Batch of 2 targets.
Target 1
Amino acid sequence: MKRFAKWTLGLLAIAILVVAGIGAHTWYFKPLSIDWFYGRVFASFAFDSPEMLSSMRLLPPALDFHSTKLDDVSPAHDDKVFNDLKNALTTLKRYDRAALDREGQLSYDTLAFFLQSQVDGEPYRWHDFPVNQMFGVQSATPNFLIQTHQVTNLEEANNYITRLNKIPLKFDQLIESLKLREAKGVIPPRFAVEKVLLQMQDFSAKPAKENALYISFDEKLGKVATIDSATRARLLAQAEQAIGASVTPAYQKLIAYFTALQPKATRNNGAWSLPNGDNYYAWCVRKHTTTDMTPQQVHEVGLAEVARVSSEMEAILKDQGLTSGTVGARVQQLAKDPAQQYPNTPEGKKAMLARYQEILDEINQGLAGAFDVRPKLGVEVRAIPEFSQATAPGAYYDSGSFDGTRPGVFYANMRAPGETPKFAMRTLAYHEGIPGHHFQVAIAQELQNVPFFRRVIPFTAYAEGWALYSERLAYELGYGRAPLDTLGRLRDEMMRATRLVVDSGIHYKHWTREQAITYMMDNTGMSEGDVTAEVERYFVDPGQALAYKTGMLKILALREHARQVLGDRFDLKQFHNEVLTHGALPLTLLEGVVNEWIEKRKKA
C-alpha cells in the first residue's frame, strides 16, 4: 500500500504541477529534473492506455477517468504515440548523462535503449498483424474484460457494461488500421486469416447468455455482496443487451472484413515477403534480442544449441531403451504413455491444475539458498479461457496488479491436457511461475527508489531469458532430477534452441510453414498441435521467439564469468540480486551491471 500511495501522490503532484506554471513547462518542454521527465514519459503513455491503467490498478477511485474506456487503436492515435516516443528520445538526449549517479545513468541508458529501438522501427510501423490467432485484438479485448476489469461494486459493474458498448468503436478503429496495412501490402498469412475467422465466428455465434463476457460478468456480480438480486438482474439484462446490440455486430463487421481479405491471403510466407522485409526482420532480431546479432548469427547459434541439447536428450532416451528414430519421435513415444497424461475430462483438467500449484508451492519453500529477495505478491494457476484455448500457447504468465488485489497468474492451456506430458509439467511451472516470470515481474513491480518506468519496461530477451534460466536453475537446485523430468526440461530447452533455427529459417531463409513444423517435430518431441501453434506464432511475431535462448545464454555466461573471476567470493544469491533488482534491462546493460558487481566483489 505504501508503493501504491507513493505513486498516487506522484500522479497527484504531476496533476498539480500541470495546473501551475511550472507544470506547463514540465509537461510540454524539457522538465527541470530528469525524474520529472521520467514521470512525464510514463504518465503520458499510461494515460493513453486505459486498459493498462486498469491492469495496473494504480489510481484510486477519485482519479478514475479510464474505467469506462478501451484503448484507441486508430492510425491517428498510433501516429500520436510514435511522435511522443520520438519527442521523448529527443528530450532525454538533452540531459547531461555524465552528471547522473550510477543508478541515474542506468535509468537513462535503459530508457534511451528502449526509445531508440522503437524509433529505429519507424519504417516498419505497419508491418505487424494486430488481428492474429495468438494474441490479436479480437481475443485480447474479451480477455481483458474477463480477466482484468474488476467488478467489486455497482460503479465498476456499470463501467463493465459501458466498456462492452465501446467495443464497436474500438473495432472500427481496428478495421481502419487493418485497411491501412492492407494498402501497404501487409497482409497476414493465409492460416492466420483462416484461424481468426473461425475464432471470431465461434465467439460471436453463441447467444448472449452463453457468451464468456456474460458468464464471467454474472460470476463477478455473484461475489459482490452490496449488489442485491434486483440490481443484479438489471445489470445482467443490460449486459445481455450490450452483447447483442454492440459486441456481436462489432465482431460480425470484423468477420466481414476478414472474409473479404481471405482471397488476398494466398501465402504463408515470413517477414522476407513484406515490403523491405529483410531489413524489417534484421530490426526485429535486434529489438527482441537487445543485441547486434544478425539473422545468420542467430541461425548458427541455434544449430549449435540444437546439437548440444540433442546429445543430452539422446543419453536419457537410450537409458529408457529407446534407440531408434528421431529424438522427437522417441520423446513423443514417452509422452503418449497413458501414465504420462491427465485425462481430457473436467476431473483430469482440475487435477492437472492442482499438480501445477503443488509444484510451485514445493519449490517456493526451497529457494533460501538461491534468493534473498523474494516478491511479496503471490501466484496462482488458472486455465486459459476456453474461447482462446485452441490457438493459445501451452502456457503464459499474467502479472499481478500493483495494488496487490490481483495475484500473478500462471495460465495453463487445458484444450487437451495430454499435449503436455506429466514429465514436462515441472519445467513449465518453473518457467511461468516460480522462480521464473513471477519472480522477475513481481520483484520489478516492487522496486523502490527507481523511476516508475523501470518497474514495467519490457525487454523480452531479459524476461524470457530469465524464465528459461529458471528452468535450468531449478534443476541445479535439486528439483526435477528424475530422468523423465530432466528429459522434460531438455525438451523445453530444445524447443527454445529450435526457435533460433526456425524463426530465422522462416523469416530469413524462406522456410515454409510445413518445413518449420517438421524440423521442430523431429527435434523437440512436442505434440503436433503444440508445434503447429508454436510455428504459427513465429509467423505473426517475427523475432520474438529468439529472445528466450539468447537471454538464457547471456545470463549463464555472466554467471560463469562471475564464478571464474570471484572464486570463493561468488555468491549465487547476490548474483541473482544483480540480475533481478534493477528491473528489465537490455542484455548489453545487464552485462555492465554484473561486471560492475564483480569488480566491487573483487575489492570486498
Note: The longest helix spans residues 229-261.
Target 2
Amino acid sequence: MSQFAINLLFVGASFALYIGIAIWARAGSTKDFYVAGGGVHPITNGMATAADWMSAASFISMAGLLASGGYANSTFLMGWTGGYVILAMLLAPYLRKFGKFTVPDFIGDRFYSNTARLVAVICLIVASVTYVIGQMTGAGVAFSRFLEVPNTAGIWIAAAIVFLYAVFGGMKGITYTQVAQYVVLIIAYTIPAVFIAMQLTGNPIPMFGMFSTHTESGLPLLQKLDEVVNALGFRDYTADVDNKLNMVLFTLSLMVGTAGLPHVIIRFFTVPRVADARWSAGWALVFIALLYLTAPAVGSMARLNLATTIYPEMAGQVEDYDAAAEEALIYEERPGWIRTWEETGLINFEDKNNDGRIQIYNDSNEEYAEIAESRGWEGNELTVNNDILVLANPEIANLPGWVIGLIAAGGIAAALSTAAGLLLAISSAISHDLIKTMINPKITEKGEMLAARISMAGAILVATYLGLNPPGFAAQTVALAFGIAGASLFPALMMGIFSKKMNNSGAVAGMLAGLACTLLYIFTYLGWLFIPGTNMLENTPDNWLFGISPLSFGAVGAMINFTVAFLVCKVTNEPPQEIQDLVESVRYPKGAGVAVDH
C-alpha cells in the first residue's frame, strides 16, 4: 500500500469517527449546543479540555519553535502551562459557580451592563478569530502534505470538516469529538517520539532521552546538538536568552492569555457541579502534561535529525566540523521526505552557489560569513517552514508508513479540535450574548439555535479566509491571540471575581484600554494584519519599545487594563449592593454543590 493510501486511510477513518460522534451527539437544545447539557463527566471534560487547549500550535508548531529557537523558545512551554494553572485555580471554579453559558454572559451580569457585555463580545471575537487563524494555518500544513493537495485546498478541506461536526453538534458534539481527537493526537505525538528517542539515544522515554547519550557520537544529545548548530553559525541550542525583560513579559502574556481564553473557559460550564470544574481542571493538566513533557525532546531531536540529514558527516564522532560541513548533501541525492515536502511549498531549495549541494547555515551571522565565504557558500539554500518539523519527523527518521499516517491524523485532530472550540465560543457570543440577550430577547429556542449555527458557519468562512493570509506561522499567530485575550478579558474576569468594588465603568474602560493598546502595538510593529506590505515600522528588536516584542505586549496591555479600571472605578459610583453580595457568594468556599443554570 502506498504512503498516500495509508495517510488517506488514517485521516479518513478519523474523519468518519468525528462526524459519526457529532451525529450521535447532535445538539437538540440551546443548552446542548452551548454547554453540552451541563452533564459532562469531569474526566471526559478534562480530556476534551486538553484537546481544546492543545491546538495546532501545541502539536505542530511548538516543537518546531523549540527546534529552531532552542532554550529561548521554552517560554511557550512555561507561559501556556503556567497560564493553565492560573485558569484552573483562580477562575474556572468561580465562573462555574456563577452558572453562565459564556464569558460575555458573566461579564455582562457581573458588571450589570450590556455595554460591558458588548465590549466583552468584541474582545472575545478579536481574540478568537486571531487564534482560529493559527488552527486553520496548521490544518492547511497537515492536509497539504498528507493528502498531497495545495496548502489552500488543505485549509478549505479543514473548514468543511469543522463545519460538518461543529455546526450540527454544538458543544455536545464537540465535547465527545474532542475526546476522540485527544486520544488520536496524543498517540500520534508520542509514538513517533518514542521511535526517534530509541534511534538517537536508545532510551524509549523521549523526555529522558533528551538528556541521554547520543548513540552515534557518544556525546550527551544536547551537547552534540550544540556542537552541530554552532558549527553552522547558529547560537548554541541551549544558549540563554539575551532580552530577559522580553522573556518575562512574553511568558506573562501567554499565562494571562491562557487564563482568559473564552473557548477553554466555556468548557468548565459543561460539568454538573462546581467541584467537578476543579476536577476537570486537574484531569486536563494530567492529559496536557503527556504532550508538554514530550515536546522539548521532539524539538531537539528534530533539529539534530534535520542537520545531520543535510550534513551526514556530522552525525557521528566529529574531529573537524569544518571538514564535515564541506560534505553537505548533494541535492539530487536528497531523501524522499524533502522531495515530498517540496511539493507542498513548505520546503524550498535555491542553489545559490551552483555546487549542487544543500547548504543550511546562519547567513545572518556576520562573524560566520567569512568562514562561509571560504567554503564557497553564498547564503542559506534550504528554507524549512517551522510548522512541518513534527509532521516530517517520522519521515526524517525513516519510521514505518503507518506511523506517518498516524501523525497525519494527529496533527489534523489537534488543529480541528481547537478550531471547533473557538468557533463555538464565537457563535455563542453572537447568538446568545448579542442576539438573545441584547437584540431580540423574545427569540425562540429554535430561532436561537438557527442563529448560533448561522453565526458559526459565518465564523468558519471568515477564519478560512484569514487562514489563507496569516500574519505568521501557527504558534506566532496563536501567541498574538493570547496577548489580546490576556490584555482584554483576563483582567475583567479577575476583577469580576475578586473585587467587589469594581464597577461597570471601570471594567469597560479597562477592557477597551487593554484591547486598544495591544492592538495598536501589534499593528505598529507587525503591520495591519493580513494586508501584505503594511508594516508601519520594521519588526526588529532595535525598533521595539524597550525591546518588547509585539508577541509579548499582552502582559503590558493587561497591566494597562487593571490600572485604567481601578482609576476609573475610584472616580465613579460603587456597584449596587446586590452585585457586591453576588461576588461574595461566588467566592464563598461552600460552593461545591450544584451551580445555578440560567
Note: The longest strand covers residues 347-349.
